[in-house]
Specification:
The complex is a heterodimer of chains A (107) and B (389).
Chain A lengths: L2 H31 L3 H9 L62
Chain B lengths: L1 H16 L1 H38 L3 E7 L2 E3 L1 E2 L1 H7 L4 E14 L2 E8 L10 E4 L7 E4 L1 H7 L6 E4 L2 E12 L10 E5 H8 L4 E2 L1 E6 L4 H12 L11 E5 H38 L3 H13 L4 H32 L28 H27 L3 H5 L1
Parallel strand pairs in B: 5-10, 7-9
Antiparallel strand pairs in B: 1-2, 1-12, 1-13, 3-11, 4-5, 4-12, 6-9, 7-10, 8-9
Classes of the chains: A mainly alpha (107), B alpha+beta (389).
Amino acid sequence: MSRKIQSYLVFLLFLITITVLAIAMDLYSWKRIQSDQMVAFQRMVGGVGMGAISTPMWSFINFDTRIQPVDDSTLWPIPGGYSYGPDRTATVSYFEELPANQLLKSE
Amino acid sequence: MNKHLNLLFTAIGNICRNKVRSIVLILCLIAVLFPFVTAISISEGIKFQSLVSIEEGADIYVTEDYFGSNAPISLDYVGRFKKMEGVTKVFPRIVGRAYFTNRLATLVGIFPENLPESIRLSQGTMFHEKGDVIVGEGLAREFRLQPGVRFSLSINTSKLLRIVGVFDSNATIWSANLILMSFEDAAEFFKVKGKATDILIYTRSGYAPILAKQIQENVNASTSGSPETPLRVQDKTLVKRYFERGFNYKAGVFTALYTVAFALAIPALLIVSGFGQTERRKEIGIIKATGWQTQEVMEMVVLENLVISLTSAPLAILTSMVWLKWFNGAFIAQFFIAEIGLMAPFPVPSRFLPLPCLFAFIFAIVLTMVGSLYSTWRVATVPPVEAMR
């Protein structure tokens, strides 16, 4: 085994160890955060925010479905057309109105 | 065992010898894996904060239903909900939006009784007097706001507000551009008296679904003789369904498809351009001429790909981690969190879970194998003289 191969193997082992340790540390840090400021803030305001947007740009649905679960941005600027809302293009979260069956049959 | 180890060392030797090819391949893989790892980790970070928001929020949210959309609810309902069995706490709140110069802010109005003592502010104190507000760190940083500053907004210029505190930036991404004030101030600000955006109901364990049904059915039935607006009731189970669909289903499928589509383009390009193929053909021809079997050649290439993937995936994960944790996702976070600009005004939440990291490694393996196995097999099965030509 040449020196170069030895060095590469050592580098590879170091890289994998560092990555595993970094992931473990990140997981641990998130466990500690749970009891921190997020909880106090959310308790105070009664739960605000759900999606990957910090303010409701065009409609509330992507910001927090509890405040407005209806995507009324589909009603404008082109009624019935596609929503051009900037908050709709978020790639990590996307909320759609959940269909509720409101049909009541009378016998 | 010795044979396999020797093949592994030969594979590593090949990687070290063909430096340019190996570096280009590793960089390409990092470029492919980096957005995938970043998107998934930001998604997991926001998902975590979102779950805290749901868990710590109310059990039932009630609004009025005007023409199929949510509408402000009368405060008269508060007393009626309080009397229901299983209810522990009821409070109304106002959530609205207004422009603070060119920055959109979320305005929240709550009763001062809800202010917890444990909340930590980066500056100032909680509000005590009429007109006092607490602003998010994003707004404070952008407009250099600090406790003591007075302002009014064009939506109601007669309502003068005074900043008494600034939220800690760690209190979720949704607090960055938020203005918190008392319920009374929010009602005055929006000029809507006797109404709230929604009424929050906290219940004893297990009561929420029953109460939600009761509210929907009974309270909707008119008691005073005059017709009442229908109510829209959302309980925690429904909100959790939104959460699961919003993150797991849509985001997961989208991100995976996007990444796979993007990723497959690169090795395809490498194959089409024939990058390093002539050299590789000659190499395989030579080792076949010295007595190597096709199976051994294939095993060596597989090991080479494995080592390349084991190098690229951790490097992509570490690069993503450094970028998100140390540089707060500068320039790239805006692709995943809408409308935050080049530099996020809050700590970009990112959570690196083992499974997506494992997926990144599997992606790397698949990509390298797709790009090399078939072409190697084709070269390895022809006579060495032809391969070396």
